[in-house]
Amino acid sequence: MSAPTSKVEAALVPLFAALGDPTRLSLVIKLSSGDDRSIAKLALGTGLSRQAVTKHLRVLEQAGLIDETRVGRESRFTLVPDRLADAGRYLDEVAAQWEEALARIKAHVES
Question: Are 64 and 15 in contact (CB under 8 A)?
Fold first, then answer.
């Protein structure tokens, strides 16, 4: 794998790495409703221990995808939609670059 070519790309590496794991992606999907959730609620139906879910949540938090709030003795987690929007904008830019490249190839072949 080649190194990121810009500061923006380097900043997105942890985000895409975090989203590349199926468990973490499912946690992001659970949090996408906008509601905050406890570790216990997030662990339901995963087949994972709360400790395992906590490790995945820490990766998501380090990537800036979720925020943690303490409510008494409980940790509650919420999605940071702006961070997902960063990923979306980057993917849109990459898609546009590919479309331009394909258009140039098509024009060259057709000429």
Answer: yes
